Amino acid sequence: MIINEHTDWLEIDLGAYKKNIQKMKEITGRPVMPVIKANAYGHGLAEVARAAFQGGAAICGVARTEEAFRIRRKGIRGKILVLGGAMPEHVPFVLSEDVSISLTDPETAKGVSAEAVRLKGKVHVHAKVDTGMNRLGVPVEKGLDFLKLLNNLPGLQVDGLFTHFARADELNTGTTENQLMRFTGFLDEVRLAGLTPSVVHSANSAASLYFPAARFDMVRPGIALFGINPAPEAPLPEGFSPVLQWKTRLISVKTIPPGNGISYGHRYTTTQVEKVGVIAVGYADGFRRMDGNRVLIRGRYAPVIGSICMDQCVVSLDDIPDATLGDEVVLIGSQNENHISAQTIAEKWGTIAYEVVCGLTARLPRIYKDE
Ligand SMILES: *Cc1c(COP(=O)(O)O)cnc(C)c1O
Q1: Is residue 283 flagged as an active site residue?
Q2: Please, which pLDDT band fits residue 235 given cuts at 50, 70 and 90?
Q3: How many CB atoms lie within 10 A of CB 137?
Q4: Where does the pLDDT of residue 85 fall: very low under 50, low under 70, confident under 90, or very high at 90 and above?
Q5: Which residues contact 234 (CB under 8 A, 6 or more apart)?
Q6: Active-site residue identified among 18, 23, 37, 247
Q7: pLDDT at residue 114, rounded to an integer
Q8: How many whole angstroms from 206 Cα to the centroid of ligand 1?
Q9: What is the reported pTM?
Q10: Which residues contact 72 (CB under 8 A, 6 or more apart)?
């Protein structure tokens, strides 16, 4: 347990993050590009970036140039690839701070090159082709022309080539095999044309673990390195551990007589004398205003009752008679033998674990442990 003065906080184990990177390297036999977009999936961008490089990351992936900017501003110098959305306006920054960007269409490529030429530099780029995600990237049929264009643009240095899977976390759809077939066919054309860049990559977490043929020169996992299953169908193997715990405290303990409504809207009414607690967590922290939530207190599950408020919610302590003011409460993590994972919460909320951790708001203090 970390002793602190907070009422509601995240404990983030950077040592576990580094071990997960090592585990991923071991399993895939490839260099790893940890994807740390969206504030490192809620875990804290700069702290996780630093840990990633210490833990052996070859390069870190972010979604936006602004994220690369935040990492550099903290004095972190490791390699960074912006996976999407780079614009010619970003060229002065990416040139001076040695950040690589992805190019996903010819127009942007020309604009980026022109700006680089004006500044007398070469931007390091990875070309993205679309093999079936139908989001970013040049359709793979036009991939060779795109790569030729990039190689001919004077302001660009083409270092990498990649694609992205739509359904790697569903193991038996055939979609990933299909995307892989299109990508490897394309890579053959690229090789014949003598244009193979130094790094080819495609695998997110699920593909890294479950589709060995997708590993190519480097893997690109995000969620797995946080110790979270990509999907119930694509669980992590042994040896990965969760990085984040979410904790709060009992800030009030009381008994309420029968027939009383609890919290906004009185959506729960006591049926007998009930022992209840107030915990210092609400929807403004990323807890969802839905029924069916539960937390751990003294190693036992306590159901949330009534509406979740912005800063607090109420839990039933009827089954935890020894619960006391100030007790530590776990929303994500372990207490004694019991455990609540981001996945469990996601299932309750009808979403994915990614959204649960990305939804942890800036108000939550993040307390780092690194050993
Ligand atoms: C987010 C992202 C990843 C990582 O995905 P996970 O499922 O978290 O492993 C990899 N590549 C791209 C392009 C991404 O956007």
Answers
A1: no
A2: very high
A3: 23
A4: confident
A5: 168, 169, 170, 171, 205, 206, 209, 210
A6: 37
A7: 98
A8: 9
A9: 0.96
A10: 80, 97, 99
